[in-house]
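Hi R.,

Here's the chain you asked about this morning:
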Amino acid sequence: MSGRRVDSGWALVGGGWLLAAALNAYIIVPASFFPVLSRGLSIDATAASWLVSVLFAVGALVGIPAGVVLDRVDERRAATLAAGVLFGACLWSWQAARSGSYWSLLGARAAAGLTFPLIWSACIDLIGRRFDPASRASAIGVFTTSAPAGFAVGQFAGPRVVARYGPSAPFGVFALTVAIAGIAFWFASSNPSGDPSGRSGRPERADGGTAAPHLAEFRRVLTDRNVLSVAAMGFLVYSAYVFFNSWMPTYLTAELGLSLTASGVLVSVFPAIGVLSRSTSGFVSDRLLSRRRRPLVAVAFAGTLPLVGVIALTEVPAVVAGCLLLAGLFLQLGIGILFTYVQELVRSTVTATALSALTTMSALGSFSAPVIAGALIESTRTYVAAFGYAAVVVGLGAVLAYYGPEPNG
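And here is the predicted structure, written out as tokens:
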């Protein structure tokens, strides 16, 4: 790989990172001030949780079709167009929150859900094609740190912006960040070959293939046992990840008596540590595990399981903070490698479709976790059942990863 191509690859990682971080900050920010939003919109906890879950629900519905389309179109332009739609959805969210209309806000958030499978899968597939096998996992791992960084910014900044400017303001703030990030991505993702999309007819995949995928190939990918196994791991790991991100602020406020601002700071630690763990997941897998992927995912689930129990049983904020830090570290080691893992299980012409299967199941887990947890909390009036649900999810993930496929050994 030439120096110029390497430089352009890291520019692409940077531009994609900014766009995905802005997207993820917008996704999670309502969870950082659910109590304020619930009072302002006169809604209960379950209805509030839908303001986060609806993005993942829509993403799960469109994820597979989006991946099939991305395997046949200019992914750079598709991601930029999606950024434009996301910008419009942010402005719509801002206006809906200002007017106090829950259903309009829910509709705006649903519209934003159309964009995240396109942005996420397109960026990962573009990065995968720009790097060689020796550095691909590391590059994708660095890109995936955009999600926890965005979540951390949303959790940390949301309560502060609300306290100063009101509950509609965060949506307007993130509209601006999405616009800036979308422009940055467009310029950073240009290809040094002179073809801005990085394509010559068909896209050059990670192994250099250019043939257009056939319908039978898509069908094989979407029924492949190994792909479905990794997609199921994605469902479980994102269920746990979004459970913590969506309900811990409310839990810390309602059960431990912390202020909304203090709980936002504490919970922001959980995604923030992912900047470290996701960025190093590729290095650990490539250098220390001889490019094996499965052991890292198994460790991610197994390391998280006891921490769920400790968080559920303690009322000491310092202990909760430490356990959140470690849980975020372990879970996101697995997340960081999954997107490389699934690409290595399929032919190079259908990597976006494989990614879309993983993204769709991850979105389904992200959608279902806050809703299930909210229903358990509403019906039992405690958080015990919700933490039990999280423990079951993580335990199942550990078993599935232990018996999962290994593409490189």
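One quick note: Residues 195-211 have pLDDT under 50 and may be disordered.

Cheers,
M.
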